[in-house]
């Protein structure tokens, strides 16, 4: 099988490295800056101490179109905001048999790809773990979770692909109910905006009750949407989805005992939205908290905490607000008292 990872940044670089580690034929379409950093080989590591590399996936820079031909599996690993453009740009790599995998956070971005390639198999992928480039060419998985590929039916042959990906450095699996899984992942990603606005590592954010109260309030709104839509969220963390707001609201002394597993992440981990805002890029907020707002409004449900957070992120994108907000400042913006919005 010929794999191409299109728009390989943190997730695509790690995935491409795993494919090379699993002896697959893989090319990465990368920006020239990444090509320079990675041409001495890509090294993989994870929070459990697994390592591989240097690995040498084929790196295609800005002149990749020169000898492009359709591949068997195309992994689209750009941000949601870049997906439609990337899908159009990738056209020389897509033939009638090419299977396309969309590896984005949030809900709904893959529909753009389906609209552009209605005759191809387009599947969703959930990426639950965090990746950072700890040094040039060193991609590090900082948290747990299995890469989950969409399974289209009971007779689907996705198992073969899962088997070739699945390894200690990147556990992989498949699932049929991707919508519920996307919403379960979205529940966790509601913290991306808070993390980016706070400008601190995820672990430090979770250790502060003030930030956790905001996360809980954001999640309440998502859970109301899921309840109204009768979406049963699968369990992605040790605490079931519907109990997360309750656990997050616990005082520090109890939270640190009850939810110690939630804090088993590298102390330096930041969310992908923090990277976007820090680099002055537009964020994926429309596909994350924005998806909750869209659904809540259509169902007549309250979503004002998510609305305020989206507004604050837009202000940062427009250069009108600086990141580094304390929990108290955020709570004041939201009108949060006693952990609930008023
Ligand atoms: N990073 C993480 O830890 C996690 C990320 N995710 C999700 O995974 C998805 C990918 O995120 P991530 O890997 O962080 O993103 P990155 O920004 O690190 O990687 C995307 C790369 O694709 C490049 N790119 C964009 N458009 C094109 C194009 N048309 N042609 C060639 N290259 C292109 C970008 O370059 P440029 O920036 O110059 O545009 C960038 O280098 C997102 O939806 C994210 O939310 C999920 C879990 C964790
Ligand atoms: C893994 C997680 C939840 C946090 O790093 C993420 O999805 C992101 O950063 O976008």
TrEMBL record:
The reactions it catalyses are: (R)-pantoate + NADP(+) = 2-dehydropantoate + NADPH + H(+)
Sequence ranges assigned to domain Ketopantoate reductase C-terminal in this UniProt record: 177-317
Molecular function as annotated in GO? 2-dehydropantoate 2-reductase activity
Any keyword NADP? Answer: yes
Domain of life per record: Bacteria
What does the UniProt keyword field contain?
Answer: NADP, Oxidoreductase, Pantothenate biosynthesis
**Pathway note:** Cofactor biosynthesis; (R)-pantothenate biosynthesis; (R)-pantoate from 3-methyl-2-oxobutanoate: step 2/2
Q: Which SUPFAM superfamilies match?
A: 6-phosphogluconate dehydrogenase C-terminal domain-like (SSF48179), NAD(P)-binding Rossmann-fold domains (SSF51735)
Q: What is its EC number?
A: 1.1.1.169
Is Coiled coil one of the keywords UniProt gives this record?
no
What are the residue boundaries of the Ketopantoate reductase N-terminal domain, all occurrences included?
Answer: 4-152
Family indicated by similarity: Belongs to the ketopantoate reductase family.
State what this protein does.
Catalyzes the NADPH-dependent reduction of ketopantoate into pantoic acid.
Protein name (record): 2-dehydropantoate 2-reductase
Q: Which organism is it from?
A: Bowmanella yangjiangensis
Output the lineage of the source organism: Bacteria, Pseudomonadati, Pseudomonadota, Gammaproteobacteria, Alteromonadales
């Amino acid at each position: 099988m010929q794999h191409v990872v299109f728009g390989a940044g943190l997730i695509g670089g790690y995935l491409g490295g795993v494919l090379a580690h699993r002896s697959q034929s893989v090319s990465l379409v990368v920006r020239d800056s990444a090509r320079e950093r990675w041409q001495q080989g890509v090294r993989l590591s994870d929070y459990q101490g697994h390592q591989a590399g240097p690995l040498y996936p084929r790196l295609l820079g800005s002149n990749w179109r020169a000898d492009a031909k359709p591949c068997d599996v195309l992994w689209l690993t750009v941000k949601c905001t870049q997906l439609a453009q990337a899908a159009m740009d990738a056209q020389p790599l897509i033939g009638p048999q090419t299977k396309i995998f969309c590896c984005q956070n949030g809900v709904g971005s893959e529909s753009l790809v389906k609209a552009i390639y209605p005759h191809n198999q387009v599947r969703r992928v959930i990426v639950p773990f965090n990746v950072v480039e700890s040094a040039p060419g060193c991609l590090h998985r900082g948290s747990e979770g299995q890469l989950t590929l969409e399974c289209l039916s009971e007779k689907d042959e996705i198992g073969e692909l899962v088997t070739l990906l699945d390894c200690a450095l990147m556990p992989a699996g498949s699932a049929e109910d991707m919508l519920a899984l996307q919403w379960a992942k979205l529940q966790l990603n509601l913290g991306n905006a808070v993390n980016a606005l706070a400008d601190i590592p995820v672990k430090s954010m979770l250790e502060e009750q003030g930030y956790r109260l905001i996360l809980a309030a954001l999640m309440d709104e998502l859970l109301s949407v899921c309840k109204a839509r009768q979406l049963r969220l699968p369990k992605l963390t040790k605490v079931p989805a519907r109990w997360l707001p309750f656990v997050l609201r616990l005082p520090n002394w109890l939270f640190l005992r009850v939810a110690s597993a939630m804090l088993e992440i590298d102390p330096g981990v930041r969310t992908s939205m923090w990277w976007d805002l820090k680099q002055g890029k537009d964020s994926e907020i429309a596909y994350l908290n924005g998806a909750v707002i869209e659904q809540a409004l259509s169902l007549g449900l309250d979503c004002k905490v998510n609305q305020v957070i989206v507004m604050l992120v837009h202000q940062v994108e427009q250069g009108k607000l600086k990141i580094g907000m304390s929990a108290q400042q955020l709570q004041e913006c939201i009108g949060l008292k006693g952990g609930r919005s008023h």
